[in-house]
Amino acid sequence: MKLGIILQSNNPEHAWNAFRLGITALKAGNQAEVFLMSEGSELDTIADSEHFDISVKVAEFKELKGEIFACGTCLKLRNKEESGVCPISTMTDLLKMIETSDKVVTF
């Protein structure tokens, strides 16, 4: 199965759970992609906390060959550029993820 995850939130718990789900899918032998949009495009600025080790989860997701994409327009609105976390993407890329995924969930 291919799982598409859309992260629209910069809430640490939402981001943490999105990546936990992606990791679980990858460990079960599935494919997983995360598309960051809206506040989710701020992923690289969400600080780790006592309860939410987001940077660890993102690193584990990528190590397991999960893919992450970020909405270029959402980044521009926030005066951000491409980061080391993921490449800049477009609505066309999001549509492709949706069309090729068996399931899509949004956090």
CATH-defined topology: Hypothetical Protein Ychn, Chain: A
Helix content: 25-40%
Beta strand count = 5
Shape: globular
Number of domains: 1
H/E element sequence: EHEHEHEHE
| The CATH H-level homologous superfamily | DsrEFH-like
What's the arrangement of strands in the largest beta sheet? 4-3-2-1-5
Q: Give the count of helical stretches.
A: 4
Low-pLDDT runs of 5+ residues are none
CATH architecture classification name: 3-Layer(aba) Sandwich
The multimeric state of the shown protein is single chain
**Strand pairing plus helix content: what structural class?**
alpha/beta
Mean pLDDT score: 95
- Work out the radius of gyration: 13 Å
Report how far the terminal alpha carbons are from each other. Answer: 19 Å
CATH class: Alpha Beta
The proportion of residues in beta strands is 15-25%
Largest sheet entry:
5 strands, parallel
Pfam family, one: DsrE
Helix-strand blueprint:
Layout: E1 2-7, H1 12-27, E2 31-36, H2 54-63, E3 67-71, H3 72-77, E4 88-89, H4 91-100, E5 103-106
Helix pairs in contact: 1-2
Pfam family, one: DsrE
